């Protein structure tokens, strides 16, 4: 059953749908499906937490190994055979063999990467829903609103609740792309593909010094517009703009070439990945002129941030998994409002305590083969949430 009403505006309307309130067996069936999903999430949390600790310690050991072996180069313009196969550190300006260009718009730049972004003016649908119970039925009121915006992906208007008056083109006449220089060097050394991939500090390219490339294209600010009037775009109009990364030559408009710092293995005039004995691959690139110590400090900081982010994700997955698996107890008592609310609070507290304890225990297991004392300390710490939870349970009254 659907009750439909329109606000009178072409850009906004409201739809109301209703369905019978689900019975006990139906809710129990949905809860059973949630329990299965919770079990999968719960098991994935163990895997994520356990492997993350091993990864973090392996990366830390590999960085320590790299710091003890790295050789700073005296010159980036001469290749020493003494450093063949060794981990080396060098800093210098980027250089490429030839400029990157986009002949369709008259763009030419001496850089490592050139990115063309294309956006189309399109209709976008937004939903705002709320549910409520009325006359024994669950009703859902959805407000649909439409707005025209610049989007880099084609918005499929066939999925709109109301496509009439909000139809978008099915494709863009101009495509986005990223061009990458086939040969990137620092001094006499050629960077590997992995190092080139790390050059991703994109900056918007100013088009102020360029002319309109075609009669049907108009330049406005840092955009090329495909349309009749850039100030009043219509659905289907395009705008094109550019980004670059790794300026590799002196440019009168953009300045001097970008400098980078690289730590990698030397093989002839190539800079390639270095496989540390601890298990990680060292292939490091940072913008700017950095010392060996500064590079490894940044790497250690990045490893620490990644470790804590994955720990938080693992704990959250375990909490969600336990909550879904214990949801059935809430379903069994959801006919009784007071009991239902108490059970809900109790289940959340239970999931919080168990997720915290099991997360600490799993992390300690990941450290067992690397740092046994820390593993033992974390294992003891995992008992704290359970002890705190038990201490808050009131003792039984004496009869």
UniProtKB/TrEMBL annotation:
Q: What superkingdom does the record give? A: Eukaryota
Any one annotated GO CC term: endoplasmic reticulum membrane
Keyword Membrane: yes or no? yes
Alphabetized, the UniProt keywords read:
Endoplasmic reticulum, Membrane, Nucleus, Transmembrane, Transmembrane helix
Xref: Pfam families: TMEM43
- Residues spanning the membrane: 32-50, 308-330, 373-393
Signal peptide stretch: none
Its record classes its membrane topology as: Multi-pass membrane protein
Localization, per the record, is: Endomembrane system; Endoplasmic reticulum membrane; Nucleus envelope
Give the GO terms filed under biological process for this record: lipid metabolic process; nuclear membrane organization
Main localization (coarse): membrane
InterPro entries on file = TMEM43_fam
Similarity comment: Belongs to the TMEM43 family.
Q: What is this protein called?
A: TMM43 protein
**Which organism is this entry from?**
Drymodes brunneopygia
